[in-house]
Amino acid sequence: MSSNNPLTTSSIAPHPHLRDYYETEEQRRQLLDEQFDHIAPDYNWITQATSFGSGNRYRQEALKRSGLIEGHSILDVACGPGTVSLGAQRIVGETGKVVGLDPSLGMVTEAQKQGVVKVLQGKAEDLPFPDSTFDFVSMGYALRHVTDLTLAFKEYLRVLKPGGQLLILEISRPDAFLPYHVSRFFLKQVVPLISYLGTKNPHAHKLMKYYWDTIETCVPPETILQALENSGFVQSQQYTLFGGLLRDYSGSKL
Ligand SMILES: C[S@@+](CC[C@H](N)C(=O)[O-])C[C@H]1O[C@@H](n2cnc3c(N)ncnc32)[C@H](O)[C@@H]1O
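^ thats the input. predicted complex w/ S-adenosylmethionine below
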């Protein structure tokens, strides 16, 4: 990567300020923590219902496809109620180690209830671990919530061992006209409604609407890949499904 590339050192917000929801960065952080705290007990139901029952299996398959194996140590950033961590525990087995991390106390509590053995409260941008601790770092459907992509990616690189692997699962706006409009209708209208009707949780509707707005305004995949490279990852690539609605980003530490 060229050293005079403007992205090399600069911070990259995953999406612009969404003034319908917050004015300042502090308000954005507060909104996220409150909403995720409130939704924590219902999050698994929403994920499984809106992915037609395939969400947990997809996450576990993605971990395997990216090279997670028995005996590995993995940090699952933004673990939520353990959706990725539980799949990781099944793969790494008793000889491996899974640590879930999330800023929302509600999510951390729920992850423990669901059976994630080790869970801590913390954020992607400031990981509470020494350098070169993990074989693998994962982040499921939370990249849009970090303050700065570069900062988060540098933290992921720091805590990975040499040769370690990063996997980021994301939802993004498809490029083509039809997949874009079908996804927009489904995620902006149907998902908030199903989430509310299925859980009766008043926060579900607001959070799922916010969810689409962050997807719609998120930086493009090329910027995410470039930020990975600029942060020091090699072999960064994306795996896409459903016309780009699902995108998994991966990268390795040399
Ligand atoms: C949509 S949930 C994803 C849960 C789970 N990883 C999954 O695959 O479904 C997003 C999670 O990101 C967490 N989160 C928000 N901001 C974060 C940050 N800066 N660092 C780490 N996690 C964050 C939230 O608390 C929430 O639990």
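The CA atoms of residues 114 and 154 lie 30 Å apart.
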